[in-house]
């Protein structure tokens, strides 16, 4: 990437709305690398086409170029963590799961953008609520911008439509794990040739953690609580996790759960759509999942809409501290949240080719195109992008105004009592690493049911003691109690 000595001109252009002089060629402009996790299929040809269209637009309006880098979601955390040790990435998505925000800040990998934000447009400043600003801040400093999205979610099950209809299953009546269990055993008996229950993604049985417990309290990787409580525990010692693990172990032993779930690399919804699996657990929100995933039916709500401690701002976009182009990177970062044309191209691709606007002004697939054959997968995976509230509403959406709908949804979501609490783990790198390794060692095996929690819990507790977990947890609990007392 070539550095351009026109940062002042670009800043003035952003402030005043002036166009960058046409004499500046694209070859002389700074290229900002933008990393995005893939939740769908993207062909190299389609990404190149979209990138070219984006860059023609960005050159005229902002005087910068964008290098789109799509990374498979299963490899994204590791890849971006490594990339942020160099100047390979400028603007990147990151998740706050497992304490990534606090870890990146502690490691000096994320740029402090507080001063940039304070000098930004009023439009950008008005985009975020106080809660969203809290979710992307550490020690009073801003390190990223949260994805504008409905936060929290309820847990449901996504089931194969053909089998539901064949067996006369009343999907919406399934609102408990006991009722789901009855259906799973019925399907397993009728269709032993397919997987009955598969993970939501890779080896993860569900992303709907609020249906299990509250996690990431204090933006940590180790503090959990049963929902609605503030008593901190390890993941494995929460009652919600124990209950979930009990179901999974029983189902796994009875052949209900995918036998090789630990080595799974596919999305559960893809297998359910294709008919190779009957069911996957899922986190649902304002869009019905059976509209997003063709050939599927969604169950009733298994766990109500809740927002864990890390759920508000669980996906954010920030700037690598090692970026060689921080000014231009913030220009791109701001445009992601304030420029509908840029955000629409990035999210949906090219109008007329990857999506069309119908006579109602709503976005949908071109004739003959579906999520399975659309080469630029953004239309099926808008959850990965910064702000879907400023792009055209999808035809499948059951609302007219995305912004008003999301704001109403967020008002009704139950928020963790620990939200806003931050516990500084800067000096705890070795402990965090030890805990994460311990959790990774057991979590997926227990959640898929291939290992009984009851059998391994004594060993887990012993290992927790050996890394000083309970002493750290006691200190974290004391800090949380003090925080709650001041609210």
Describe the structure.
The protein has helices at 7-16, 44-61, 73-83, 100-106, 114-118, 122-125, 130-135, 161-166, 177-190, 239-253, 268-274, 289-292, 326-338, 340-348, 402-412, 429-447, 453-466, 469-486; strands spanning 30-38, 64-72, 91-95, 137-138, 141-142, 145-146, 153-160, 195-198, 214-215, 224-225, 277-284, 296-298, 303-307, 315-319, 356-357, 363-364, 414-415. By secondary structure, it is an alpha/beta fold. The chain has 2 domains: 1-151 and 312-420, 3-Layer(aba) Sandwich (D-Maltodextrin-Binding Protein, domain 2); 153-307, Periplasmic binding protein-like II (D-Maltodextrin-Binding Protein, domain 2, 3-Layer(aba) Sandwich), CATH 3.40.190.10. Strands 7, 8, 11, 12, 13 and 17 form a 6-stranded mixed beta sheet that branches. A hairpin with a 5-residue loop joins strand 15 (356-357) and strand 16. Helix 16 (429-447) runs antiparallel to helix 17 (453-466). The longest helix is centred in the last third of the chain and has 19 residues, at 429-447. The relative contact order is 0.16. Residues 1-22 have low confidence and may be disordered.
């Amino acid at each position: 990437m070539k550095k351009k000595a026109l940062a002042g001109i670009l800043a003035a252009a952003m402030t005043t709305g002036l166009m960058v002089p046409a004499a500046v060629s694209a070859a002389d402009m700074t290229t900002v690398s933008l990393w995005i996790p893939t939740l769908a299929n993207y062909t190299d040809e389609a990404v190149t086409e979209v990138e070219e269209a984006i860059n023609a637009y960005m050159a005229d309006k902002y005087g910068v170029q964008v290098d789109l880098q799509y990374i498979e979601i299963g490899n994204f955390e590791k890849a971006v963590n490594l990339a942020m040790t160099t100047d390979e990435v400028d603007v990147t998505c990151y998740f706050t799961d497992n304490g990534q925000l606090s870890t990146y800040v502690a490691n000096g990998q994320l740029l402090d953008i507080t001063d940039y934000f304070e000098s930004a447009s009023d439009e950008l400043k008005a985009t975020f609520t106080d809660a969203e600003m809290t979710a992307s801040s550490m020690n009073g400093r801003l390190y990223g911008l949260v994805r504008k999205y409905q936060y929290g979610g309820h847990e449901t099950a996504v089931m194969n439509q053909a089998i539901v209809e064949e067996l006369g299953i009343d999907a919406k009546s399934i609102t408990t794990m006991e009722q789901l269990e009855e259906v799973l055993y019925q399907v397993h008996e009728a269709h032993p040739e397919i997987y009955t229950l598969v993970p939501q993604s890779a080896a993860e049985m569900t992303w709907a953690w609020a249906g299990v417990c509250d996690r990431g309290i204090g933006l940590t990787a180790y503090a959990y609580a049963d929902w609605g409580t503030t008593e901190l525990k390890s993941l494995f010692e929460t009652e919600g996790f124990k209950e979930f693990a009990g179901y999974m172990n029983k189902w796994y032993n009875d052949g209900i759960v995918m036998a090789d779930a630990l080595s799974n690399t596919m999305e559960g919804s893809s297998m359910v759509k294709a008919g190779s699996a009957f069911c996957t657990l899922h986190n649902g929100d304002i869009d019905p999942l059976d509209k997003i995933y063709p050939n599927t039916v969604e169950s009733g709500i298994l766990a109500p809409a809740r927002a864990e401690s890390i759920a508000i701002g669980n996906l954010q976009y920030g700037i690598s501290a090692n970026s060689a182009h921080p000014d231009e990177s913030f220009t791109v970062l701001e445009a992601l949240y304030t420029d509908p044309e840029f955000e629409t191209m990035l999210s949906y691709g090219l109008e007329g080719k990857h999506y069309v606007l119908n006579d109602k002004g709503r976005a949908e697939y071109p004739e003959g195109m579906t999520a399975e054959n659309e080469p630029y997968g953004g239309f099926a995976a808008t959850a990965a992008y910064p702000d879907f509230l400023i792009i055209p509403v999808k035809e499948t959406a059951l609302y007219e105004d995305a912004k008003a709908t999301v704001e109403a949804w967020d008002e009704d979501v139950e928020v963790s009592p620990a939200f806003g609490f931050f516990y500084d783990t800067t000096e705890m790198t070795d402990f965090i690493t030890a805990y994460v390794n311990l959790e990774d060692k057991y979590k997926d095996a227990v959640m898929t049911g291939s290992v009984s929690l009851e059998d391994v819990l004594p060993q887990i507790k012993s290992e927790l003691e050996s890394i000083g977990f309970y002493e750290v947890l006691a200190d974290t609990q004391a800090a949380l109690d003090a925080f709650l007392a001041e609210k």
